[in-house]
Amino acid sequence: MARQSQVALWKRARSPLVRCPRPDRKRQRALMRQLTFLAPKHFEWRDVPSPKLQHDRDAIVRPLAVARCDLDLYIATGVVPFPGPFAFGHEMVGEVVEAGKLANVVPGQRVVVPFQISCGSCTSCRRGFTASCESVPPYAAFGLGGGRVEYGGALSDAIRVPYADFMLVPLPQGVDPIHAASAADNIPDGWRAVAPQLAQYPGASVLIVGGLAQSVGLYAAGAAVALGAGRVLYLDDNQANCERARHMGADSGPMALAAGREPQELFDIVVEAAGTSDALAFAVRSCRPNAILTSVAMHLEPTTAVPLSQAYYRGLTFHTSRASARTWLPDVLDCMACGNLHPEHVTHSVMPFAQAAECMTDRGPKIIFTPD
To answer: Where are the alpha helices (DSSP H) in 57-100?
Structure first.
């Protein structure tokens, strides 16, 4: 069945204008809708069992706003191969609807749900490496199956959140759930590439080399501006994203990476979000002596060329890893609540859940889905 037909049938079955036999209330409560990834460009809305509390410290959360992560686009288009089927979506602001008797979160509370599962008490979590929690299987996360343990997906009626008191971060009063949806992953990913660096070197200059991780690079630019960096320059051959960077207060221009091209200026802090060897080499060449370079992009080649001799003589610090989103979430939300960080400038579209399957391969930087 075509995806459009599936969505149409799903909407029709729930429409108050359609006469249906008296529903089985018990079955209604036992099932919920879930967007399921099957294969690149193929999604399906399915009725699946509703999540239940499995531990006294669990919570059940219903989504208020779900963002498409940069990685979601590349899974949906097949650039990053993930085997289906699995529940989709992992950037989410939601509302607590049920909590275990040992959980301190309460029904009705609005929360950001970080995408990685973390306990908050193991050695890695205590050190701030919540992406490597030792209490759960490796890479445990919502909405990213690919052979991993399933924890459900944000594009559904509800999810079960383990370790709720640690995992769930209250949404500050006055912050729009739509604006904060990507705080579950991509905003902290950009934040961690500039915030600790600027704390070490206040007022430092920042360069973002944009590309593959398009929203992460833009969020990094916005965070650098919000945190009082000196010059903030965003480079990208995508002119629409350059305009978004300007809205966030950064200077911007085309990347135009010619082979062996030397940068016109050097920076204290450099963020590589392009995901190509040429871009990484350009980022290294753009570093001042003793600069800090962070790669936030996934480099998908089996090997990636890095000009280590230049890095050596410049004495630069190079970091690459998955972001520990939960660690940085409170700082991100505080900056949003103060009105200094504006992730809404990155969002290019807000759509209802029913259009999620059709919109998942849209090439823009950030789509937000809301329950319909």
So the answer is: 70-77
pLDDT digits (tens, 9 = 90+) for 190-209: 999 999 999 999 999 999 99
Sign of CA dihedral 362, 178, 212, 129: negative
Q: Report the pLDDT value the prediction gives residue 257, as an integer from 0 to 100.
A: 58
pLDDT at 147: 65
Residues 6+ apart with CB under 8 A from 189: 213, 216, 219, 296, 323, 325
Residue bearing tokens 């459900």: 152
pTM of the model: 0.91
Q: What is the dihedral of CA 192, 293, 179, 52, to 10 degrees?
A: -50
Residue 246 carries which side chain, given as an amino acid letter? Answer: R
Half-sphere exposure of 36 (CA within 13 A, CB side): 14
Distance CA 273, CA 209 (A): 6
For 280-299, the pLDDT digits (tens) are 999 999 999 999 999 999 99
CB atoms within 10 A of CB 15: 9
In what side-by-side order are the strands of the sheet with 31-39? 42-49, 31-39, 86-87
Going from the N-terminus, what domains does the chain have, and what CATH number goes with each?
3-185+324-370 (3.90.180.10), 193-320 (3.40.50.720)
